[in-house]
Amino acid sequence: MLRRRVVDLEPTESLDHREPLWQDAIVFVLAGELAVECPDGDRHCFRAGDILTLARLPILHARNNGNDRTRLLAIWRKKDRRERWIAPAPRISRPNDSQPKRERTSNMSATIVSYTVKSGREEENAELVRAVFEELAAATPAGFRYAVFQASDSREFIHLYMDEGAPSGTLQQLPSFQAFVADAEDRHEQPAAFEQFDLIGAYRTYGNA
């Protein structure tokens, strides 16, 4: 079961990132900006359209350093008490991160997002997705791989995203992607489900050939 929560931060207001919900959540910056400061002095600013996780990160402060209100959307899965899975430590994507581009099964992972749209809105959703790929084809940003699938016998869509060192928000800051997510909640029959998978093996899937 997925849970969701919207949090507003006024200018200079800090986020209590130690609250348990943030440890398992995927966080979407819907408006404004979130400044994150780490113990080693690194500072990162996430703006509208960025997606991040805060779990297991050495964070000193997370606050709204802007002049406008910041709105965050947190989505997390309610875990069964019997679950004992240990997720890999998340990371914040940085512009200077260096990630190997060749196909390696030891450290590659994919984020898979699935959802079902309301009846009659399948083509609308598909057209918005196509617009994203048209912009990607024109802009040719590097550092990630992205694919979207639509079930032929249902209203389900699946998005597959693989990070290869892209600066934070590379995909999310595209105007076409922002147009896609703007009305997503209204198009969805149920909230999107996010899952992280580690790559075990692949053949001519993620390589350059």
Please tell me about this protein's structure.
- By secondary structure, this protein is of the alpha+beta class.
- The protein has two domains: 2-77, Jelly Rolls (Sandwich), CATH 2.60.120.10; 109-198, 2-Layer Sandwich (Alpha-Beta Plaits).
- The chain contains three helices and eleven strands, in the order E-E-E-E-E-E-E-E-H-E-E-H-H-E.
- It has helices at residues 122-139, 175-182, 184-187; strands at residues 2-9, 26-31, 33-37, 43-47, 51-52, 61-63, 70-77, 109-116, 144-150, 156-163, 193-198.
- A hairpin with a 5-residue loop joins strand 9 (144-150) and strand 10 (156-163).
- Residues 80-107 have low confidence and may be disordered.
Number of discrete helical segments: 3
| Overall body shape | globular
Largest sheet: 4 strands, antiparallel
Q: From the alpha-carbon coordinates, what is the Rg to the nearest angstrom?
A: 18 Å
Q: Label the structural class.
A: alpha+beta
Strand content: 25-35%
Strand order of the largest sheet: 1-7-2-5
Which series of helices and strands comes N to C? EEEEEEEEHEEHHE
The CATH class label of the largest domain is Alpha Beta
What is the CATH third-level topology name of the largest domain? Answer: Alpha-Beta Plaits
How many domain regions?
Answer: 2
Q: How far apart are the first and last residues' alpha carbons, in Å?
A: 39 Å
Mean pLDDT: 76
Indicate the CATH architecture of the largest domain.
Answer: 2-Layer Sandwich
Stretches where pLDDT falls below 50 for ≥5 residues? Answer: 80-107
Helical content stands at: 10-25%
Count of individual beta strands: 11
